[in-house]
From TrEMBL:
Residues 134-152 have a biased composition (Low complexity). Keywords: Membrane, Transmembrane, Transmembrane helix. Residues 126-195 are annotated as: Disordered. It comes from Formimonas warabiya. It comes from the Bacteria. Residues 28-111, 192-314 form the DUF1980 domain. This is TIGR03943 family protein. PANTHER family: UPF0703 PROTEIN YCGQ (PTHR40047:SF1). The chain crosses the membrane at residues 21-44, 60-79, 91-108. The keyword Membrane applies.
């Protein structure tokens, strides 16, 4: 009698206890959240996220990674909760995204970015301050403000339309070293030799120097400038003696990449290979495009240069 009662007690207790079984759906969700959150964290810590978005997205990416990891931890509490119908299709959304980010991506070329080319003054709306410059202003001066990129202008080259001054001399000596330069107290940029009226643009200051020259055009007129970029030329929009030593600028993500630089006048543009990297040295002069004054470069020397990795981030 005693044993029968004891057996009934334990049997009844086992029947009333909730069953514990491994839940494959929760485990799959846990893996997806953990991998996706960890991968985003890795991209931010390594700096590789800059190949996809601008630095201003960094805090949002950290927030996304934290949310994913929190979801993963919450899922652990349900890992052994029984579920009679397994649903896992929604997990493939993150799986596809992870695989997409892991795949190698070839760099974009200018051929992918010029389909929606627009004239320079198309985005001129107002006047910027000394430290501002439009990010998607093709042929536009940094002294003009620019609206947010739209579908029609997202990939528009950012250049400057010149006048008819022509340069006809080249030299094979690469100007790789900067001369004794002083800092410009107004712009806070290196590479300025005011005494000799020369500007040597460091690769890390490509955008700030273009903004500075545009907003202080009269100050830097007749200065000699040395700047490195890839050869961007398009017969549909540029004359035979025009090209731009450009860098790709990103205002939000890779979808709005656009060539940015100052337009140059040069007699032997046909001898320059498109997308090749060069260091251009020339004299800054004032030209006009659609009735607007803007700085342009009369080329005096062109030398081959090594490719500069990374994009330009105006904001």
């Amino acid at each position: 009698m005693f044993y029968r009662g004891l057996s009934t007690f334990w049997l009844g207790r086992d029947i009333n206890m909730p069953a514990r079984a491994f839940n494959p759906q929760i485990f799959l969700e846990f893996v997806c959240y953990s991998v996706f959150g960890g991968f985003i964290f890795y991209l931010v810590r390594s700096g590789e996220y800059l190949s996809y978005v601008t630095p201003r997205m960094k805090p949002y990416l950290y927030f996304t990674a934290i949310v994913m990891l929190v979801w993963a931890c919450v899922g652990l509490s349900r890992l052994f909760r029984p579920q009679y119908k397994i649903r896992s299709a929604h997990c493939f959304v993150l799986t596809i995204l992870i695989l997409f980010l892991l795949l190698p991506h070839s760099p974009l070329s200018t051929a992918d970015l010029t389909a929606n080319y627009t004239g320079g003054s198309a985005f001129s709306q107002g006047t910027l301050t000394n430290k501002q410059m439009p990010s998607n202003n093709p042929k536009g001066s940094p002294s003009s403000s620019t609206p947010a990129p739209t579908e029609s202008n997202a990939n528009t080259p950012v250049t400057a339309q010149p006048n008819d001054n022509i340069s006809d001399s080249t030299d094979s000596t690469p100007p790789n070293t900067q001369s004794a330069a002083t800092d410009d107290p107004e712009a806070g940029l290196s590479g300025l030799d005011a005494e000799n009226k020369k500007i040597t643009v460091d690769n890390d200051e490509f955008y700030p120097w273009i903004a500075e020259v545009y907003t202080n055009m009269a100050k830097y007129e007749s200065y000699t400038i040395s700047i490195t970029g890839f050869v961007f030329k398009d017969p549909e929009y540029f004359a035979e003696n025009e090209f731009v030593p450009a860098r790709l600028a990103m205002t939000c993500c890779t979808a709005d990449l656009a060539p940015l630089g100052m337009l140059c006048k040069y007699d032997k543009v046909s001898e320059l290979k498109a997308d090749s990297w060069v260091t251009v040295e020339g004299v800054i002069h004032k030209g006009q495009y659609e009735g607007e004054d803007e700085p342009q470069i009369t080329v005096t020397k062109i030398t081959p240069a090594q490719e500069v990795e990374g994009y330009i981030y105006p904001y």
